[in-house]
Amino acid sequence: MEIIDYLRAVRRFWLSCLITVAAAVGVGVLLLAVLPKSFTAETRVFLTVVVGNSGSDLASGTNYAQNQVDSFAEVAVSPLVLDPAISKLGLQTTADELASHIGVQVRDGTSVMVLSATDAKAELAADIANAVSDALVAAVDQLSPVSSDDEKLVWATVITRATVPQSTSFPPTRNTLLLAALAGVLLALIQAVIRHRRNRHIVADEDVAKVTDVPVVAHIGEDEELSRPGADKLALAAHTGEDYRRLRTNVSFLGSHDGAGKAFVVTSAVPSEGKTTVSLNLARVLAQAGERVLLVDADLRNPTIGSLLDLHGSVGLTDVLVGRAQSGSALVDTGIAGLHAVLAGEIPPNPSELLASPRMREFLAEATSRFSYVIIDSPPLLPVTDAAVIAHEADGALMVTSTQGTTMPQLAEALEALRIANGAALGIVLNKLRRDPKRYGRYGYGYYHGHAKT
């Protein structure tokens, strides 16, 4: 995968990524709450010597002190130092046990020794550190060699006394939360990439491009009102109406250009992609542009255009195809200027055979001679072959896919069904896309093509 693929994965599953990071940080907070806490206090002890006043004496004294630091570091955790500290504080422990809580660090190139004490209580940690440093000063005084005139040559001074620590040394709050957040980001990226690879749904132009070279001719925004039962499929929100007008512009460049009317089959790979709504509104906006448009309900298995438009007719497409009526008698006025419809009629036992019959070819030829556009609503391609049969006789098909509806394999299979039937796939309509007000802001609307539901 390229970097852009990772970005698309995160953008598509942004909510689950956010939840993963939040959960990881929550685990970090939980660890901070349940793990036993410890505090560390530090003191600093400086070692030096008393020698002559000449430069060479001072240099040799400094070198001697530095050479002694490692030795006194061992002394700092010995019973000679720790037993007095235990007695001073009244601790119920031994020198060996206390030594495991004492740290000694020698600063490179210096005679400074850092003593640290760790305990579950912050005040006691500071007390132990100070007691040990005081005991170390006394031990240095006891162990220091003397000069010929009985002066101590090595002595120690506490240069920084321990204060009560305000935060725990274990678990380290800042580092724990930082590591938890980094782990969350890593896990979020991993789950997003895995889901991105396993989730083959069509939600963006990039997904279509992975399957076919057929162009995306429209992005139809999600309209919550249309998804409600009994909603008026022609009552579009402002942004959705603009989407259909863009689709109208794009379909004007598709199909035949020989002066005859154009016939487009509107279908989908699987049910519930919104193909009928697209058929209705595409026909309407074409009529609003002054075109003569015929909307045909060729879904002879589950016809819905009549009920959606509240139209009734005694003659339908099946009557024309079986020879019981002429095509002109099947026309129904929709009440929209320039838009007529042919309803499905009675549901036949052999829809595919009727749609593949010569009479269907004759019906389309007559319809395209009388209308500028013939929009044909047909069944999904994968369950039945009806749409592929009609597409062969029409200019081609517009394939409707909705967010989290059609998968890439399903789209590929549907396009292959069209190809086998010698039908042309003219364009892909991405339907029910989530709107993003940050995109296309100058129009006041937009779509977030990369998001999928988590």
Protein described:
- This protein is of the alpha/beta class and 454 residues long.
- It folds into 3 domains: 3-35 and 172-196, no CATH class; 39-160, EIF_2_alpha (Alpha-Beta Plaits, 2-Layer Sandwich); 202-443, P-loop containing nucleotide triphosphate hydrolases (Rossmann fold, 3-Layer(aba) Sandwich), CATH 3.40.50.300.
- It has helices at 3-12, 14-34, 55-76, 79-89, 95-99, 122-143, 173-198, 205-209, 238-251, 275-288, 305-309, 317-321, 351-355, 358-370, 386-393, 408-420; strands at residues 39-49, 102-106, 112-119, 154-160, 216-221, 262-268, 293-297, 331-333, 339-342, 373-377, 396-402, 425-433.
- The strands form 2 sheets. An 8-stranded mixed sheet has the order 5-12-11-6-10-7-9-8, with helices on both faces. A 4-stranded antiparallel sheet has the order 2-3-1-4.
- Helix 2 packs antiparallel against helix 7, helix 4 (79-89) packs across helix 6 (122-143) and helix 9 (238-251) crosses helix 10.
Query: For the terminal residues, how far apart are their CA atoms?
Result: 21 Å
**What is the element string, with H for helices and E for strands?**
HHEHHHEEHEHHEHEHEHHEEHHEHEHE
Number of strands: 12
Q: How many separate domains?
A: 3
Helix share, percent = 40-55%
> What's the overall geometry?
rod-shaped
Q: Write out the strand line-up for the largest beta sheet, numbering strands in chain order.
A: 5-12-11-6-10-7-9-8
Mind telling me which CATH architecture of the largest domain this is?
3-Layer(aba) Sandwich
Please report which band the strand proportion falls in: under 5%, 5-15%, 15-25%, 25-35%, 35-45% or over 45%.
15-25%
